[in-house]
Please model this.
Amino acid sequence: MNYTETLNYLYSSTPVFEKIGNTAYKEGLYNSLELDRHLGHPHQQFKSIHVAGTNGKGSTSHTLAAILQANGYKVGLYTSPHLVDFRERIRVNGRCIEEGYVMEFVQKHRSFFEPLHPSFFELTTALAFQYFADKQVDIAVIEVGLGGRLDCTNIITPILSVITNIGIDHTQFLGTTLPEIAAEKAGIIKSNVPVVIGETLPETRVIFSQKAEEKAAPVIFAEENDEKAVFKGSKNGRMVYHTQHFGTIESELTGFCQVKNTNTILCAAQQLETMGIITTKEAVKNGFLNVTKTTGLMGRWQTTNDSPLVICDTGHNADGWKYLSQQLSRQKCENMLVVFGMVDDKDVDAILALLPRRATYFFTQADTHRAIPARKIQELALQHHLTGETFNNVEQAYQTALRQAQPNDFIFVGGSSYIVADFLTMLQQKQGKRQ
Model:
């Protein structure tokens, strides 16, 4: 099989949550442990940092990887979902896994995993761990796929755990209350391994405290830590922070949600410095300053055009949209045009209630079975006094918005990671044709 055939095989032979939703989710670690045993426990051959949370874990994971790279380490990075290319999920020092390695891994091990019937994410995680071991990375930043306690990444014993925050999301798997969801996320806390908690509420803090005490794990609550990141404004398209420990820091990531993420990351960096992993403060500054270039991060308040200004963001649940709605409301422009769509496991009404009424909407749907039809989104949006046309796909919606926009207008593309994925894929394809 060539690379395209190999990917088609993976997508068609293993349940893929991104494609079909709930039925792809496999609870428990049996398959992950069996795959790990078959491969010779590759995750034990490198140090790791484990990152969970409802929002912000992607930005946190990428920035920590960028900091570690700036400190001179060979760094593995495992995240999900991908936006344009499957290989984005697995990187070493910012470079995606080679197509040939993916093909060889599937061909070599399919006779073992086919009778096991692993999910796509279980198999991809095993692939990542084997790749990191073969590439002899010094340390890998591992992002939890869903939840924590029963997530297939949870076979690792990291040197540091990070839980960014807790919000209502994936309730069909993790529970319907914040304490229930917090308990699932807290499942990544390991015995005697420090854990940084980014944000808490009274009802979630007690869950983390109890779990940390049970595991004898030092717990650091970033909100209370003396490493406060005070946002001082923007400079040259970057966000500037004054910190207690690392001096003045400029960050490439400019979404409002990044203020909270930055404090969490700095607390994690301080712990890594205490462990002797991070050895220079310049590494922290350089990591923040060059995170997208260093790691290939996309879709976080990402600018794709200047006139009119076009920005996309992968925020996809109510907690994420609390920040996005603030940012949109403060956007200075003549007219605001929003290309918007969602998938079927989100609190649609809660998000629609946060969207700006002054905008013109271009309702659409991503290329996934989980997409809510654009017409349905339009009907629900009308109940929130949001109006606009419907389009069968993201390209049609965006191109129509672009034709209507004037140079001083603002176009936002989002509502779902899958909307942003289709959008960025379209842009790359058009760029490739021009070249």
